[in-house]
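Write out this protein's structure.
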Amino acid sequence: MKLYVGIDLHSTNSYLAIIDGGGKRVFRQKLPNDSASIILALSLYEGSIVGIVVESTYNWYWLVDAVMA
C-alpha cells in the first residue's frame, strides 16, 4: 500500500498526517518538534511511504535533514 505523509511544521510542534492512495487517513498526531519522535512515528510505516511534504515558512531544515537521513 502506498502512503503519503504531510507534516505541518510549527515553531514548537508538528502535525503529522498519513493517507493512503485513496485519501483515507491512516495516521494523524500532533508531535513535539523532536526529530526522534517524528522519525519513530514514520518508522511505523517504513517501506510504504512514497512521498512526504512539509508545510513551513521557516525552520524546516532540521526536519528535512532528519527525514532524508
